[in-house]
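Incident log, structure service

09:12 report received: a user says their structure output differs between two submissions of the same chain.
09:20 pulled the input from the user's history:
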Amino acid sequence: MINIAIIEDQPELRQGLAEMFEYNAEFTLCGVYDSGFAALEEITETASPDVILLDMQMPGMNGVETLQELRKRSITSKIIIYTVFETNQLVFDALRAGASGYILKKESPERIIECIHEALNEGAPMSREIANKVIAYFRSDAAPGGQGMDNLTTLEQDFLRLLSEGFMYKEIADKHNISLQMVKYHLHKIYQKMQVTNRTQAIKQFQQHS
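09:34 re-ran on a clean worker, output below:
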């Protein structure tokens, strides 16, 4: 059984989501909240759901603020942003704060459930529009011409240094005050620039260059 909670301020949508999970034997609905404040009163480190669907635009405390507070309280639930908003700033603020995925409210029930499974399997579910924004961001941030160590930014070189010193992904995320998902995105970009496929190859090339 997958324990799931919903944080959504729109009554009709909140009810629709709740009914979708209540009628699916695969899920246990363990919390339905109309605000971030209400959710934070009940969700704790010892009583946290497997997955949280979190609205972005809510009165009093928005989705990013709620997400940041949940992570501060060591809530390890997979938190998927579920919203109509797809501006670049909101997307990257959410990912940096520790969101496991970012999907739009127009997605079908089948796609929502698929995204939940993807997040639980350590994936990063995103609506197509959001994935395109992420790809465009990394393409625009890529250094022009060539591949390899000389093409890495200072931040990327620091990531590699930490990897070579034995730091885990979570430790790198904490050190740079970013989400684990953003660390994975940066490392994927590093591997592409260096033309390697894994951590071991990247560290070897880094050490040879150093």
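09:41 both user submissions now match this output. Likely a transient worker issue. Closing.
09:42 reviewer note: The longest strand covers residues 27-33. The domain at 144-209 is CATH 1.10.10.10 (Arc Repressor Mutant, subunit A).
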